[in-house]
TrEMBL record:
SUPFAM superfamilies cross-referenced by the UniProt entry: Cytochrome P450 (SSF48264)
Classification of source organism: Eukaryota, Fungi, Dikarya, Ascomycota, Pezizomycotina
Family membership noted in the UniProt record: Belongs to the cytochrome P450 family.
Pfam families tied to this protein: p450
CC cofactor: heme
The keyword Heme appears for this protein: yes
InterPro entries: Cyt_P450, Cyt_P450_E_grp-I, Cyt_P450_sf, Cytochrome_P450_monoxygenase
Species this protein is from: Rhypophila decipiens
Superkingdom assignment: Eukaryota
Protein's UniProt name: Cytochrome P450
Length: 583
């Protein structure tokens, strides 16, 4: 185990003991509170009966006593209701720990007993369950029960069994739709067969051949990106996340609808809009814990949302734009004859059934495409730039490869030039391993077939099970003794390690946009690192050559995930990756 990983592990252990203490405190507090309440009520019972009896005898002569009696009765009813609720939860917890079909799976009793730990880590602490899960694996082994109804794995040998490409049905729980507010989008589709039909309508747009049509669109955006960087001014730190997010948003919106918001041209790179979207991500765990709240929120009319949450106005405006575009395509009299150059045109005119073509589902699909296609790739791009700039030997190897492939440093790269560059591809793969743009657990359900774990345990059909890239990518033996270290060469030395890679998920529900994500990353990284030289301590730069260097950016604070809100979020107060350019 490398020293960095040890540090991380010790950090986890420390974090875990802290979390355990917190959860025990929480349970203890609620327990004490409940005991106190019961004692008080118990204590109250006898005097209450005596009081009721004495008052009842006087009732006929004093009408005001009727009111007292009512409040007394309601108090007594409340006592019974509370005791019944507590009794029910106690029995349920006992059942879940000792008699549930998952009771033999290792894991802490409090996670088996209730959803309270999930609520505590994800809602109260803010997206921290993923750290707690790592610590639970460390203590209980590669298969653990992390909630009354979910089993989590950290075993590379299970990947092909848990995430098959074909051969058995793979469902998803309704949770994902509730959390994201897109219950009928592809990623949240519960039923296996519905998913296959919807995925087929979209997947052709993401083949390597299909995305070739995006080359001029990407090049045009890259030209704009370079202009914005030049105009930003020399030696002035540039916050890169919104810049990359604007770039990826423009590309995916154009591909989905045929036009975009030109966020790269906005002075703020669309940051206020992104902040507006992030509120939805921040609500994810709250909605996951309170489905009724999710339903209430997602069923309210669109105009009411900014009225209740003014910060979401910009997102609602974009949602209205998506709705208008979807209706325009779907309700076009000559729908079938329309060209199918955009994803939405393809989806709408594809072989779908009526229930797939409702306003609600199509807008959810549009929202999924935009959200899945922008922040994810931008997050990984930020991490890639950080690692290349902090590792001069990696920068030099990449520069050498790019210089050979793209002889003219004033020209933008073409798809053909960057397609087969082993080191650039290794940089991308290593980045997504350490910094996947989707950090959420990859949850699935096998609806009909039980899943066996090495003759030890059987996961019954209908059970939620999951794996997480943030766990497996730091523990799998495939990644050697230094899994926390950014070392692209590992992918060139041993390509077989890809069998432990979960960055884009695996199986029939893996990331449909991964070719696009890889291509966007390759084009943006090739453009930046071909044009700019690395400046900094001990680096000799040629006079007149453009340079780039990191500005006050730390891995733990600004790059590593501190919270899981589907997308990874860095520590509070972080400004993310900042870079200074010189021209
Ligand atoms: C580095 C960038 C990206 C990463 C790390 C990533 C990762 C993932 C992962 C892990 C999933 C599976 C989620 C689950 O198990 O529930 C997924 C699904 C998906 N991704 Fe990506 N993604 C990236 C970029 C993109 C891009 C550019 C698009 C383009 C629109 C995209 C579209 C989708 C869609 C539509 C799904 C749902 C697929 C399905 O359920 O069949 N992703 N992505």
């Amino acid at each position: 185990m490398g020293s960095d990983q040890k540090v991380r592990r010790v950090g986890f252990r420390h974090g875990m003991s802290k979390y355990m203490v917190h959860s025990c405190q929480l349970l203890a507090i609620s327990d004490t509170w409940v005991c106190k309440l019961l004692n008080t009520l118990d204590h109250f019972q006898l005097p209450l009966h005596a009081f009721v009896a004495s008052r009842t005898s006087n009732m006929a002569s004093n009408t005001s006593l009727g009111l007292d009696l009512e409040s007394i009765w309601s108090l007594s009813t409340l006592t019974h209701v509370l005791v019944a609720i507590l009794g029910y939860h106690l029995c349920l917890s006992i059942y879940r720990i000792w008699f549930h079909p998952l009771s033999g799976i290792p894991g802490p009793w409090y996670m088996a007993a209730s959803h309270l730990p999930e609520f505590y880590y994800d809602v109260l602490l803010g997206g921290k369950l993923f750290h707690a899960i790592d610590a639970v694996h460390e203590k209980y082994g590669p298969v653990v029960r992390i909630s009354p109804r979910e089993v989590h794995f950290d075993d590379v040998d299970m990947i092909s069994i848990l995430y098959p490409l074909s051969g058995r049905k793979t469902n998803k729980p309704i949770d994902i739709g509730k959390r994201t507010g897109t219950p009928d989008s592809l990623v949240a589709t519960v039923d296996h067969d519905d998913h296959r039909r919807r995925r087929n309508a979209m997947s052709a747009f993401f083949s390597n051949n299909s995305i070739r049509r995006l080359e001029p669109i990407m090049q045009e955006r890259l030209r704009k990106l370079l202009i914005r960087i030049r105009d930003h001014g020399d030696d002035k730190p540039m916050v890169m996340h919104p810049v990359f997010r604007a770039c990826t948003n423009d590309v995916i919106t154009t591909y989905a609808f045929g036009s975009c918001f030109n966020l790269l041209e906005e002075p703020t790179f669309g940051e206020p809009y992104f902040k507006s979207c992030d509120i939805l991500f921040r609500l994810e765990h709250v909605f996951g814990s309170f489905f009724w709240l999710a339903d209430l929120f997602h069923h309210m009319p669109l105009w009411l949302v900014p009225w209740l949450v003014p910060e979401m106005r910009l997102l609602v405006e974009k949602q209205q734009w998506w709705i208008d575009r979807v209706r325009e395509i779907r309700d076009h009299p000559d729908r079938e004859a329309r060209s199918k150059s955009t994803i939405l045109e393809g989806v709408i005119t594809g072989r779908l059934v009526d229930k797939d073509l409702t306003d609600k589902r199509l807008v959810a699909e549009a929202q999924l495409l935009i959200f899945a296609g922008e922040g994810t790739t931008a997050h990984s791009l930020v991490a890639a730039v950080y690692h290349v700039l902090t590792n001069p030997p990696i920068f030099d190897t990449l520069k050498e490869e790019l210089t050979a492939a793209i002889p003219d440093d004033k020209a933008l790269p073409t798809f053909q030039q960057i397609e087969t560059l082993p080191f650039l591809n290794a940089v991308i793969q290593e980045t997504v391993r350490l910094h996947p743009g989707v950090i959420a657990r990859q949850v699935r359900i096998s609806p009909d077939t039980p899943i066996a774990y090495k003759d030890k345990y059987v996961i019954p059909p209908g059970t939620m099970y999951s794996m997480s890239p943030s766990t497996t990518h730091l523990t799998a033996a495939e990644f050697g003794p230094d899994p926390y270290v950014f070392r692209p060469q590992r992918w060139i030395e041993n390509p077989k390690i890809s069998q432990a890679f979960l960055g884009f998920a695996r199986g029939s529900r893996n990331c449909v946009g991964m070719n696009l994500a890889r291509k966007e990353m390759a084009m943006i990284l090739a453009t930046l690192f071909r044009k700019y030289d690395l400046a900094g301590k001990g680096r000799k730069t040629e006079k007149g050559r453009p340079t780039m260097a990191l500005y006050d950016t730390e891995r733990k604070r600004d790059i590593d995930p501190a919270s899981d809100y589907i997308i990874p979020i860095p520590q509070k107060g972080s400004q993310g990756l900042r870079v200074v350019f010189g021209h």
